[in-house]
């Protein structure tokens, strides 16, 4: 009998149209992928367990009973001045770059912080001075020694007078952030506004470029995010009369509360606390932009005005820094992520809500110049608006628009 163009009934499933040419169908032998069911518990993420051997045991916190002399002023030249205005050296190996919002925050992929050339380091400093904070994910090669070397490129490393340092000797210029899963929640101790701060602004030369690497912490959605607020942006929110008024004022930054808290906890104070007067508005040496230099955590008073006026200024600036969403970014950490920010132009705040999880990070900060104000400084917002032909920002309420959300 001549071959039929229709396969016999008992061959259906074993033969296909293509098999008419004699090729046997073996697709049925291929393994079938079984999709794992998603396990999800609202508001709760899996807690990582840590074996008896913890890979970062040498970076766990300690409080050595040491005493250091007061810091003295040291020469400083910002490496960002030597950076390429277009960041071409740094971005040569990047695979992606994205800004979090127009005011603040940039995330870069494809760059290995442990292998930067000096030209790339200078570009990084320049980018941080423009964008305030820059994020790098998955920096497994960037160990504490590489982190300190990069920090030392930018300036003398700062040694904190009260907070914990690693157990490993010789790392007294590293600040350790460590909370285990059984730590008490401290939300009742501090108001949310008070948690906003720029690191150790009571120093004569407060830090500039500062890096924080998370060694272990909650997984995505587990809490422990960090928020940053732009002081360029805070300055630009002020009216012209208010800008001019604050440009003539200075503020007192005190280390005494931090020192008193350490003593109350039975921990050493390695350097005597100080109070330092800094301008309330400062000018950045790389960008030439003006910014507020104020934070709720360390500023105790405004110099040369009545206390009621000082309190009013402090309350007003606290509100701007802590509640203005367009000058904020929020970062959701993952293991081995690194944030690099400029303490001169950013405040930042921790967040709670990660009870049950261990959170371990290490911070390195470089000392900068003594804060100064240059009346010839510029506004970030005005310069960028002019560069891109954007409409001038309305500050007097004469040009109204809808609130869309």
Task: Please explain how this structure is put together.
By secondary structure, this protein is of the alpha+beta class. 20% of the residues lie in helices and 20% in strands. It has 8 helices and 17 strands. It has helices at 88-91, 118-131, 144-154, 231-237, 240-247, 256-264, 307-323, 380-388, and strands at 61-62, 96-99, 106-109, 133-136, 165-166, 175-179, 207-216, 226-230, 250-254, 275-279, 281-283, 290-292, 299-302, 328-331, 338-342, 346-350, 359-367. The protein has a 7-stranded mixed sheet. Strands 14-8-16 form a 3-stranded antiparallel sheet. Strand 2 and strand 3 (106-109) form a beta hairpin. The longest helix has 17 residues, at 307-323. The radius of gyration is 27 Å and the shape is globular. The relative contact order is 0.19.
């Amino acid at each position: 009998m001549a071959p039929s163009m229709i396969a016999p009934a008992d061959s259906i499933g074993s033969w296909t149209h293509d098999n008419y040419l004699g090729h046997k169908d073996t697709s049925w032998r291929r393994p079938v992928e079984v999709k794992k069911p998603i396990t999800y518990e609202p508001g709760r993420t899996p807690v990582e367990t840590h074996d008896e051997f913890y890979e970062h045991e040498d970076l766990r916190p300690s409080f050595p009973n040491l005493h250091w002399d007061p810091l003295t002023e040291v020469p400083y030249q910002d490496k960002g001045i030597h950076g390429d205005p277009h960041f071409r050296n740094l971005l040569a190996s990047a695979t992606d770059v994205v800004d979090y919002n127009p005011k603040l925050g940039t995330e870069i992929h494809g760059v290995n912080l442990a292998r930067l050339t000096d030209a790339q380091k200078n570009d990084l400093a320049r980018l941080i001075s423009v964008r305030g904070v820059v994020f790098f994910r998955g920096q497994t090669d960037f160990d504490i020694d590489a982190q300190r070397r990069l920090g030392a490129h930018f300036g003398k490393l700062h040694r904190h007078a009260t907070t914990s340092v690693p157990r490993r000797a010789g790392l007294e210029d590293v600040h350790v952030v460590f909370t285990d899963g059984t730590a008490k929640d401290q939300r009742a101790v501090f108001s949310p506004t008070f948690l906003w701060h720029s690191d150790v602004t009571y120093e004569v030369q407060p830090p500039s470029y500062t890096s924080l690497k998370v060694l272990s912490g909650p997984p995505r959605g587990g809490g422990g995010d960090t928020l940053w607020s732009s002081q360029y942006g805070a300055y630009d929110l002020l009216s012209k009369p208010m800008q001019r008024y604050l440009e003539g004022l200075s503020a007192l930054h005190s280390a005494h509360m931090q020192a008193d808290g350490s003593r109350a906890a039975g921990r050493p104070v390695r350097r005597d606390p100080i109070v330092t007067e800094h301008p309330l508005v400062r000018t950045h040496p790389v960008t030439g932009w003006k910014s507020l230099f104020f934070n709720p955590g360390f500023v105790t008073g405004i110099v040369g005005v009545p206390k009621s006026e000082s309190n009013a200024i402090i309350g007003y600036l606290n509100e701007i820094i802590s509640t203005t969403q367009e000058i904020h970014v929020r970062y959701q950490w993952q293991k081995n992520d690194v944030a690099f920010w400029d303490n001169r132009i950013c405040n930042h705040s921790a967040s709670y809500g990660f009870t049950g999880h261990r959170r371990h990070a290490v911070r390195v900060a470089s000392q900068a110049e003594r804060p100064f104000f240059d009346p010839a400084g510029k506004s970030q917002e005005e310069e960028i608006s002019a560069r891109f032909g954007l409409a001038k920002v309305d500050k007097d309420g004469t040009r109204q628009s809808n609130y869309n959300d």
